[in-house]
Design a protein that fits this description.
alpha/beta, Rossmann fold, 3-stranded antiparallel beta sheet, 6 helices, globular, FCP1_dom, FCP1 homology domain-containing protein, TIM50, Dullard_phosphatase
């Protein structure tokens, strides 16, 4: 009797490896512990590369400049200075050198300090009209001079360098100043909105350090505290002018002219003048 031989069929067929000719084995999934270890090793290498770049940068900064070839890092502007290429910032030394070195510079705001202007329906009282062209549109401004402005400008021009510094556009403000100083002999310099610093919210700040004058010889007169927020100790605040014919702010301001020449530092002169005004 012939017995049958049962042959067991293989459960899975494996193909020989094309390189070795050996039969390959199924790859098992990597251990979670090994995956975490590999990830940690990768992070460690990344941190090492970052630290290497950081210390290399420090070495470049602290390395003395070479005498011959090579590059050097340019220093950043000091606090209070502005780079001339920085957009939205006035250039350093906005004014030319003073004609009389050491002379006191009085910086006067324009709108609501020396005059009040309005557009639209002509008001009951105004002194002159200007027609600036702004962005291609001609506009009409009715301008009322503050009481005492003519006397103030004449008196100031005799002893001070007079600068009108306004946040208004040049197209408008230049025409108003022409009316206040028709002969051009009282106002030494004019600065407009493009010389102001524009802060958050569109607020315009007048940085006196950009004028090219020693701050101990500069006084600013303005109705807006934001304008002189960088140099408050140099500022004489005045009430805003609209149309009060009995306004005496500029008449009182002329009292400062006598005080100013008794001090070398205008910040001390301003402090003394304001303290005397409080007593009155």
């Amino acid at each position: 009797m012939v017995s049958k031989i049962n042959r067991k069929a293989p459960t899975k067929t494996t193909k020989p490896s094309p390189k070795t000719g050996r039969r390959g084995r199924l790859k098992s999934s990597p251990s979670p512990v090994k995956s975490i270890s590999a990830y940690a090793s990768s992070v460690d290498r990344s941190i090492r590369r970052c630290l290497l770049k950081f210390f290399t940068c420090l070495a470049v900064i602290n390395t003395p400049k070479r005498r011959k070839k090579g590059f050097r890092r340019l220093p950043r502007p000091h606090d209070g200075e502005t780079a001339s290429t920085q957009p939205g910032r006035p250039r350093r030394d906005a004014l030319p050198p003073p004609s009389v070195p050491g002379r006191i510079t009085i910086v006067l705001d324009l709108d609501e300090t020396l005059v009040h202007s309005r557009v639209g329906v002509p008001p009951d009282r105004y002194d002159f009209v200007v027609h600036p062209s702004i962005e291609g549109l001609e506009m009409t401004f009715y301008v009322l001079k503050r009481p005492g402005v003519d006397e103030l400008l004449r008196a100031a021009s005799e002893s001070f360098e007079v600068v009108i510094y306004t946040a208004g556009l040049k197209e408008y403000a230049s025409l108003v100043i022409d009316q206040l100083d028709p002969g051009g002999g009282m106002v030494t310099h004019r600065l407009y909105r493009d010389s102001c610093l524009e802060e958050e919210g569109g607020k315009m700040v007048k940085d006196l350090s950009s004028l090219g004058r020693n701050l101990d010889r500069v006084v600013i007169v303005d109705d807006n505290p934001v304008s002189y927020s960088l140099q408050k100790e140099n500022a004489i605040p005045v009430a805003s002018f609209v149309d009060d014919p009995r306004d005496k702010e500029l008449v009182r301001l002329m009292q400062f002219f006598d005080v100013a020449h008794r001090f070398e530092d205008m910040r001390e002169a301003v402090a003394f003048y304001l303290s005397e005004q409080i007593k009155e």
